[in-house]
TrEMBL record:
This is ABC transporter substrate-binding protein. Keywords: Signal, Transport. It comes from the Bacteria. It comes from Solibacillus palustris. It is a lipid-anchor. Its main location: membrane. It is found in: Cell membrane. Coiled coil: none annotated. InterPro entries: Peptide/Ni-bd, SBP_5, SBP_5_CS, SBP_5_dom. Belongs to the bacterial solute-binding protein 5 family. Residues 1-20 form the signal peptide.
């Protein structure tokens, strides 16, 4: 029960959110007075509406529009009241108290009132999630609550000992396992959403199987739910914040070839947005009648990096012990770090604006800030953030130093096993580019890159987790608003490259991370995490590469109106969004993005005052 399923779900969530960035009008359809309708096609059917159980994006993306949680985010990523009007942590952020909004109703799919939304609904929701027999896919997140893990594992059987309590009808209290200053961001996950306990008990296993076996307190109601045909969401007229719901109807039409047919359906005016695959991108960008319909997609917060393996388990013919000797030399690692031309590699994904996806750090820009200052420009991380790691002169300098230091210890050229997923043509192409580029710069006398086509299915289990690589392209996604979420792959017992086994590592990174985690004050905490991340990169235990997302879409949605959050389900909400009269061109997108980034910086600075 760890994060792999949810990580994959989150990755697909961001992809789908981008495609779901494809249709809506503002309030009414232009000046015609018609209700706004957002239309899209889909091929991945949802199996359940039970948001307390699922971690599949296409399922909780629907639920996010039907049920509200305690908090939400505005379009700049500033936390806003949701079903909680206010909240207060104690001094060490181990106890959080929420005052709920009064008068919010649970309604059925016809809008008929069923019950009030009260504090006990959040207790009942968490009880369901942490009951192991319900097999909730997001239960592991909820174990941040005191005794949550013990209850899940059966070590505690009385749920009243779990750290969630309804103090009174509209006061909710969480007691956590330890100091958690970022707890608010975790409430953006469906495992912390409320449920009407009486209704849940009545429906049992049928809860969430139909539009009728579900209660709503969110912006929309599920008016029609016909699997492999159509589902339709309509505005909830009883919603507490209905004035900020501008799209009246959301219509999902099933098409098993949705990804293929969507661009043509968009051109015919039958849907309001589509992803434009690279196979037809040139055609669209070079056609006078299409070029202004397409724009770049918004980046997400998956971080991509090249991990170097300090516990190699690949075949003997590729000399794993020799690799182990070489990679334990800092100059050898630094030669690879400075030799990797990330722009050349990124051209295989983004042929027009590759720099827009590059990242010099593990934690992406705009993820978290300290009093309006982005985490990635805190010292000593600032110098890394602002400097391209690719540097031919430094690469050669470190190569020469490594060859001198390793003379008589390692055999050159060092074989570097670089696997890729054979099911991804782009990954295969990128690996070939990296092979040629590194060998050409560093020389065949120094490294011999051995490409390895791993299986299309089960790649993680058969290649990456067993350590059958010297260097590998890997990724990681965030779970909450704290830099600690990006440390998991690299601390002792992590899932990637076992840096704790490296000579010279000496547990330094783990010590820095633990010190940062123990700090409650956010400003000091982030400074300590920045110090830890800078150490990891400066020692070249990892080579930061890029962020996820990218690609191109034709869309009538303005991506800078949607609620902004790198984690959880906020980004799946249609609340606050409106449909443009015409799609945003790429020039308009870049201009809007520049303005949004400035506005966001101001909003974050104001929020921290």
């Amino acid at each position: 029960m760890k994060k792999y399923l949810l990580v994959l779900a989150c990755m697909f969530a961001l992809v789908l959110a981008a495609c779901g960035d494809d249709s809506a009008d503002s309030g009414k359809d232009g000046d015609s007075g018609k209700p706004q309708e957002y239309r899209t096609v889909y091929s991945g059917e949802i199996k359940t509406l039970n948001y307390l159980k699922t971690s599949e994006t296409n399922e909780f993306a629907v639920a996010a529009n039907l049920v509200d949680g305690l908090i939400e985010y505005d379009k700049y990523g500033v936390v806003q009241p949701g079903l909680a009007e206010s909240w207060e942590p104690n001094a060490d952020a181990t106890v959080w108290t929420f005052k709920l909004r009064e008068g919010v109703k649970w309604v059925d799919n016809k809008g008929k009132e069923v019950a009030d939304v009260v504090a006990q609904d959040f207790v009942d929701g968490l009880n369901y999630v942490l009951d192991a027999k319900n097999e909730s896919s997001t239960a592991w997140i909820a174990t941040v609550v005191k005794n949550g893990d013990a209850f899940y594992n059966g070590e505690v059987t009385d749920f009243s000992q779990v750290g969630v309590k309804a103090i009174d009808k509209y006061t909710l209290e969480y007691t956590l396992e330890g100091s958690t200053p970022y707890f608010l961001s975790m409430l953006n996950y469906v495992c912390f959403f409320p449920v009407n306990g009486k209704f849940l008990a009545e429906k049992g296993e049928t809860f969430g199987t139909t539009a009728e076996a579900f209660l709503y307190n969110g912006a929309y109601l599920l008016d029609k739910f016909e699997p492999q045909n159509e589902r339709v969401l309509v505005k909830n007229d009883t919603y507490w914040d209905k004035d900020n719901v501008k799209i009246d109807r959301i219509r999902y039409k099933y098409n098993k070839e949705a990804a293929t047919v969507a661009p043509e359906l968009f051109l015919r005016g039958e849907i309001d947005g589509a992803s434009i695959p690279t196979s037809i991108l040139d055609e669209w960008l070079n056609a006078d009648d299409k070029k202004d319909l397409v724009r770049q997609n918004t980046n997400n917060f998956y971080t991509y990096f090249y991990a170097l393996n300090f516990d190699p388990q690949f075949d003997a013919e590729n000399q794993p012990e020799n690799w182990k000797v070489a990679v334990n030399n800092k100059d050898f690692r630094k030669s690879l770090y400075h030799a990797l031309d990330r722009v050349s590699a990124m051209l295989t994904i983004e042929p027009y604006n590759p720099q827009d996806l590059l990242s010099n750090t593990i934690t992406p820009k705009n993820f978290v800030d300290v009093e309006g200052v982005d985490y990635t420009v805190l010292e000593p991380l600032k110098a890394i953030t602002e400097t391209d790691s690719f540097n031919k002169d430094l690469a050669i300098k470190h190569k020469e130093a490594a060859m001198t230091a390793l003379a008589g210890k390692a055999t050159f050229p060092v074989k570097l096993v670089l696997p890729y997923n054979s099911g991804s043509p782009e990954w295969a192409n990128r690996s070939q580019v990296v092979e040629q580029q590194l060998e050409n710069l560093l020389g065949a006398d120094y490294i011999d890159i051995v490409l390895y086509a791993g299986p299309a299915t089960g790649f993680l289990g058969e290649v990456r987790r067993p350590g059958k690589f010297a260097m590998i392209e890997a990724n990681w996604g965030p779970d909450f608003a704290d830099p600690s979420t990006y440390t998991d792959p690299f601390t002792a017992g992590g899932t990637y490259n076992k840096p704790e086994l490296a000579e010279g590592y000496n547990g330094e990174y783990d010590k820095l991370v633990e010190a940062a985690k123990a700090e409650v004050d956010s400003a000091k905490r982030y400074e300590l995490f920045a110090k830890a991340e800078a150490f990891l990169i400066e020692e070249a235990f990892v080579i930061p590469y890029a962020v996820g997302g990218g690609g191109y879409v034709a869309s009538k949605l303005n991506p800078f109106e949607s609620q902004y959050s790198p984690f959880g389900v906020t980004s799946e909400k249609f609340k606050g969004q409106s449909i443009l009269e015409k799609p945003m061109s790429n020039e308009e997108y870049k201009s809007a993005k520049e303005a949004w980034e400035k506005e966001r910086a101001e909003a974050l600075a104001n929020a921290s005052k």
